[in-house]
Specification:
Length: about 250
């Protein structure tokens, strides 16, 4: 869908990376995240200031843990037990050349959501992100809890089984994926086509998005929220095999 839109705008050399973000992550390649994403999830994620305690003393992102880049490998044991935890590394600027190998190392420990803050601390300051001075933390403290907009697996399955009238499940997988099986009563709109098809969704119901792993479901949640819809998303795995639903086994 995105490629077709680009071609309509006159671009002639358009290629599609079909494997997408999951394959990119699996290869251990670095993913960037934005100030807006981090700011909206402070307290839910682990933010690591790789500049170290001395630089953090002068100012750091609110709640960040000061851990020098060269010590990350030695501090493996203090990283969260929950491999789904969101981990965001930052330096003075984006510093992909320095932070990329560290992100790859952490991913090799089994962590599924490792990001580098685009723009680093300078970009954070330029966009008026919340900071602290002094009171530098050097140990990770992580308490797993649902992120804003995230629905638990138990509640999702309760909606699947009981089909309450005020809820609408939205399957944002591709049409080909959905052809192999869908949840009863769900609507399928691939996430790449969602922005141009919002009018197909009821505004008087809460929209619950799901995909196969949770990544596209969260993307769809953000599109829906920006479009004025009441929505939540499932950040977990869903498989529909022989009309049976297998959910929440990430």
């Amino acid at each position: 869908m995105a490629a077709r839109l680009a071609e309509k705008k006159g671009y002639s050399n358009v290629k599609v990376f079909h494997a997408g973000v999951p394959a990119w992550k699996k290869a251990g390649l670095p993913l960037l995240t934005s100030r807006k994403f981090v700011d909206s999830r402070l307290g839910y994620i682990v933010v690591i200031d790789t500049r170290g305690p001395q630089a953090a003393q002068k100012g750091h992102i609110q709640g960040a843990v000061a851990m020098p880049l060269e010590r990350i490998a030695k501090e493996k044991d203090q990283f969260p037990l929950d491999r789904r935890a969101y981990l965001v590394l930052y330096s003075e600027d984006t510093a992909l050349d320095k932070l990329g190998p560290a992100a790859k190392l952490i991913s090799s420990w089994g962590y599924q959501n490792v990001f580098i803050l685009q723009g680093g601390y300078k970009g954070w300051l330029a966009n008026n992100g919340p900071i602290q001075k002094d009171m530098v933390r050097t140990k990770i403290f992580y308490l797993p809890r649902p992120h804003p907009g995230e629905i638990t697996g138990d509640e999702f399955m309760n909606i699947v089984n009981n089909k309450p009238s005020g809820k609408q499940i939205l399957d944002v997988r591709t049409t080909a994926e959905a052809a192999s099986g869908m949840l009863p009563g769900a609507i399928n709109i691939p996430v790449d086509e969602l922005s141009s098809n919002l009018d197909k969704l009821p505004k008087d119901k809460e929209i619950i998005t799901h995909c196969r792993t949770g990544l596209r479901a969260e993307m769809a949640y953000n599109i829906l929220r920006n479009g004025g819809y009441n929505a939540r998303f499932l950040n977990d795995k869903v498989e529909i095999l022989e009309n049976r639903v297998f959910c929440c086994f990430k």
